[in-house]
Give the backbone structure.
Amino acid sequence: MAGSLKPKQDEEGCRDQMVRSNTFFHGGISSLLSTLITFPIYKTVFRQQIHNAGVSEAVRQLYSEGHVKLYRGVVSPLLMKTLSNTLLFGLQDTILRQLTPSSQNLISPSALPALAGLGAGMVEAVVCTPLERVQSVLQNGKNDRHLPTHKSILVRLNAQKRSSGYYRGLLPITARNALGSFIYFGLQEPLKDALEGRGLSPVVSPFISGMLTSMVISLPLYPLTVLAANMQKQVGGEDKGVMASWKKLWESRQRSVALLYRGGSLVVLRSCMSWGMITAIYDMQKKNSG
């Protein structure tokens, strides 16, 4: 009897391990596709954030640089977003599986996905901040002459302390990623189920739920994104802390919330499109692998 149970247990263990591996893979593929499609919007938003420019001015800058440079810097966000969401979806699923049996009668089951997302977002931030740092330096047009390539940026960053080099802006990035993941995994599935309950197809409902969840996340957390981009946009110079950097940013925006949110409309558009696609592609892969 015991001998007959062991193969079944081994088979279930292998199947469970495969499901866990699939969540990492599905998260990466979903992000890879969405990043390639939405990168021009992302680059326009980034220029608005660091140059305090309007949409037309940001587009004019990119147009004057030519179509060859439009995808300059795409390697970093492509690697970062793919790695980021590989970790995010995979770790969230792994943490959730660990929390579920150990938290019975302590935490509401409906809160567990959000808590697992919080933990996954914190780990993701620590791993991906160096990639975001390189990306920010690359996409700042003012660095084109003295830091034109990935190699030149890496050489400069290697010469810096980690806190002012690769991990510049870690605190706002961690806060943004952890809170964003908490909200995303807390809302996405209930929203999808509610939309399906209203008659939307299983293909459309995850896309719309991803868009709506992203909208809820993007607007309140946008100032953290602007702060991180401005902290990371150059190498060297005065090494300001988070509060000093925020004060400088707030002054540069003339103490205006409207100017602080410059580029916010495109951020919401890009984020909605990106997370709608990520959620839909991930959900489709998950169903097909099941």
Notes: The chain has a mean pLDDT of 83. The chain has one domain: 14-289. The radius of gyration is 21 Å. The chain has ten helices and no strands.
